[in-house]
Amino acid sequence: MSNVNRLQPLSLLIMRVAAGAIVLDHGIRKFQFPGFAGYLQFQHMPAWLNSVTAGFEVVVGALLIVGLLTKWAAIGTALYMVVAAVLAHPIGHLFQEPAMLFALAAGLLAFGPGMAALDGMIGKTA
Questions:
Q1: What is the pLDDT at residue 125?
Q2: Average pLDDT in the chain
Q3: DSSP structure string for 54-122
Q4: Average pLDDT over residues 2-26
Q5: Contact criterion met (CB below 8 Å) for 71 and 126
Q6: Structurally, how many domains does the chain consist of?
Q7: Is residue 42 situated within a structural domain?
Q8: Which one-letter DSSP state was computed for residue 5?
Q9: 48 with 32: CB under 8 angstroms?
Q10: Do the domain assignments include residue 14?
Q11: Strand, coil or helix: 48
Q12: pLDDT confidence bin for 41, thresholds 50/70/90
């Protein structure tokens, strides 16, 4: 079992980069293809929230990828995924992605960023 435990830092790195890449990609796509703004208006929310959510996703995704302020980025991602699950993905298979990103963020929040994170390089653990 100790051999498996040695893989934890690498596993956390993979979780962090995967979650960050997915969140970053969603933010970039919202800027490139602002169809989400129409969905927001359909849900009786202001279209400018598209830019806010896109910017949030880009920043948080980038922070996760490089491992900077990882726990804060994980908290933001987890909370954002709860909102996404309730408002944008409430039924069926559409719920899977926010649930998966919530789980990845919760794992990073509980166990830290893993290896090759800027948090560790600058001596920041929280």
A1: 57
A2: 87
A3: HHHHHHHHHHHHHTSSHHHHHHHHHHHHHHHHHHT--SGGGGHHHHHHHHHHHHHHHH---SS-HHHHT
A4: 90
A5: yes
A6: 1
A7: yes
A8: H
A9: no
A10: yes
A11: coil
A12: confident
For residue 124, pLDDT over 70 is answered with no
Angle at 123 between CA 117 and CA 125, to 5 degrees: 70
Q: Is 126 helix (H, G, I), strand (E, B) or coil?
A: coil
- Residue 70 CB coordination number (10 Å): 27
Q: Which two tokens stand for residue 91?
A: 């039924």
| Within-domain flag for 38 | yes
Reduce the DSSP state of residue 39 to 3 states and report it.
helix
3-state secondary structure of 8: helix
The Cα 55–Cα 28 span in angstroms is 8
Span 44-99, pLDDT tens digits: 778 788 889 899 999 999 999 999 999 999 999 999 999 888 877 666 667 788 88
pLDDT of residue 93: 62
Show the domain range for 23. 2-121
